């Protein structure tokens, strides 16, 4: 039954007409030519945003579950999933995200600098994904999943741990930091 709910939820994300946007990005370090593509799908009915970053080995997928106030980012190169609480002061609302993506489509970087969020990844694997809600549980099921806590802003430049960065268009930069690459 849970699998059926997950599949129906994904179909709902894909079937929402007019709410998926694809934006070409450049300046990423992962690809040889420094470019990639992000697509943002917004589903107001289920209160989720899905951001896909297609950039070779540095590809990732992020699901923002506004209903449960959790977000998860699946790092393909790390073969892991990182779950964290949504910072509603830094992360745009679902409606604002929709507006921002529409405004940025085809324009590229410009305007204000992205907001920076830095997270410390707990090295202990999550045993019960259901605590984060069915949407995130469905996305992270079957792969190692870790919880991350946000590091307060003033300490970010001094943090010396290995970090993996996920830029959400030109809106938000999230860094997931651990004690070693094996941590997550």
From TrEMBL:
<dbReference type="InterPro" id="IPR007084">
    <property type="entry name" value="BRICHOS_dom"/>
</dbReference>
<keyword id="KW-1015">Disulfide bond</keyword>
<comment type="similarity">
    <text>Belongs to the gastrokine family.</text>
</comment>
<protein>
    <recommendedName>
        <fullName>Gastrokine-1</fullName>
    </recommendedName>
</protein>
<dbReference type="GO" id="GO:0008284">
    <property type="term" value="P:positive regulation of cell population proliferation"/>
</dbReference>
<dbReference type="Pfam" id="PF04089">
    <property type="entry name" value="BRICHOS"/>
</dbReference>
<dbReference type="GO" id="GO:0005576">
    <property type="term" value="C:extracellular region"/>
</dbReference>
<dbReference type="GO" id="GO:0008083">
    <property type="term" value="F:growth factor activity"/>
</dbReference>
<dbReference type="GO" id="GO:0005794">
    <property type="term" value="C:Golgi apparatus"/>
</dbReference>
<keyword id="KW-0333">Golgi apparatus</keyword>
<keyword id="KW-0732">Signal</keyword>
<feature type="signal peptide">
    <location>
        <begin position="1"/>
        <end position="20"/>
    </location>
</feature>
<feature type="domain" description="BRICHOS">
    <location>
        <begin position="54"/>
        <end position="148"/>
    </location>
</feature>
<dbReference type="GO" id="GO:0030141">
    <property type="term" value="C:secretory granule"/>
</dbReference>
<comment type="function">
    <text>Has mitogenic activity and may be involved in maintaining the integrity of the gastric mucosal epithelium.</text>
</comment>
<dbReference type="InterPro" id="IPR051772">
    <property type="entry name" value="Gastrokine"/>
</dbReference>
<dbReference type="GO" id="GO:0051781">
    <property type="term" value="P:positive regulation of cell division"/>
</dbReference>
<keyword id="KW-0497">Mitogen</keyword>
<keyword id="KW-0964">Secreted</keyword>
